[in-house]
Design goal:
The chain is built from 13 helices and 4 strands. It is α+β, with helices and mostly antiparallel strands and 340 residues long. It has one domain. The protein has a 4-stranded antiparallel β-sheet. Helix 3 crosses helix 10. The mean pLDDT is 83.
Length: 340
């Protein structure tokens, strides 16, 4: 395959790790969520997800598309996590607790939606508290402790604290067993995309050779966004006199940081030179925490998800969806014709 053909593959597919699986999404909106169940079989949920950026041109303008993309990414993440949890949990019979029975009675089929909404609210509150309010509060505390005005140094201290909290948070959650498994699937996702972009045959052995650190990763995006936010929040009109006022002014500036971070990640994912590698290095270092070396079985799941998301590239591939698996079982159960 020529270099030009390989470059055409850059940025055509992206994904994320889910519970015991991987989600991949192609440029045309085809999405495949591949999950390995308790019995070892891999099941794919195939759907179409068209971004609103394709429907409304104004939403695809630079900076704006980054904000829209992040919102869509959050919504899609909750959806695919729900899908993976349902697929992985099939066949696992556990007696529900009294609280679970109460929730089921009150919310019925909308129980998972209710849980996801609560998780979203708590997640946003945690993010605002940890990464926006707490660093400012600690910085003001340090200034009072020293007893002198730190001036412009306050911005640097706040930025260092924000990045430090981010790294500490990732390091702590990586100690959890289920999170470590997810980080292994995260590595499988990156490796399989690298293998596809290199134009190599998608086999577990070929994928295994590639790097688990990808410049278009969400971890890199979050880190870049933090760096940009430090610079933006250092502007003179973001006051330090009142912490609550500072937080109030920070909120409308967040979309700017998100948009600029998105543009950088997209540009970095399609270009490879020393300057881009230098700017991408901090984000890639963060992936040493959020990605782990996957085994061949996990890589197989990522390959299945990738091929499902790119039906035009792999027209002969039949994804193991519930429907296709059911058809295969029915075919296998049909009695063989008697040729005597």
């Amino acid at each position: 395959m020529s270099k030009k053909e390989m470059n055409c593959r850059l940025g055509t597919v992206g994904g994320e790790a889910v519970l015991e699986g991987v989600m991949m999404k192609g440029k045309d909106g085809t999405m495949g969520v591949a999950v390995r169940k308790e019995d070892g079989t891999v099941v794919v949920t195939k759907e179409k997800h068209i971004s609103v950026r394709k429907k409304y041109k104004i939403l695809n303008l630079p900076i704006i598309r980054g904000v829209v993309g992040m919102i869509e990414s959050f919504v899609l993440s909750f959806k695919v996590l729900n899908i993976s949890a349902e697929v992985y949990g099939e066949g696992i019979d556990e007696e529900p607790t009294k609280f679970e029975k109460w929730l089921e009675k009150k919310f019925g089929k909308s129980l998972m939606d209710f849980v996801m909404v609560i998780a979203s609210v708590l997640g946003v509150a945690l993010a605002l508290g940890l990464f926006m309010f707490l660093p400012s509060l600690i910085t003001k505390g340090i200034e009072k402790l020293i007893g002198t005005d730190l001036g412009a140094w306050k911005n640097l201290i706040e930025g260092v604290l924000k990045i430090g909290i981010f790294i500490a948070y990732l390091a702590l959650v990586s100690l959890m067993k289920d999170i470590r498994r997810t980080f292994e699937y995260h590595g499988a996702e990156h490796k399989s995309i690298f293998c596809y972009e290199a134009g190599e045959e998608l086999t577990p052995e070929n994928v295994k050779k590639h790097s688990k650190h990808h410049p278009r990763c969400g971890t890199s995006f979050m880190f870049v966004m933090l760096i940009i936010s430090v610079l933006i929040f250092s502007l003179p009109f973001v006051p330090w006199d009142n912490i609550w006022l500072r937080l109030l002014i920070k909120l409308p500036l967040m979309p700017v940081a998100i948009g600029l971070g998105f543009e950088f990640i997209m540009f970095a994912g399609k270009h490879d030179n020393w300057f881009i590698r230098m700017l991408s290095a901090p984000g890639l270092l963060m992936q040493r925490i959020t990605t782990r070396e996957p085994d061949l079985d996990q890589i197989e799941v990522a390959i299945i998800a990738l091929k499902t998301a790119l039906p035009e590239e792999f027209p002969d591939f039949v994804p193991p969806t519930e429907e296709n698996l059911k058809k295969a079982e029915e075919t296998a159960e049909e009695p063989a014709e008697n040729n005597d």
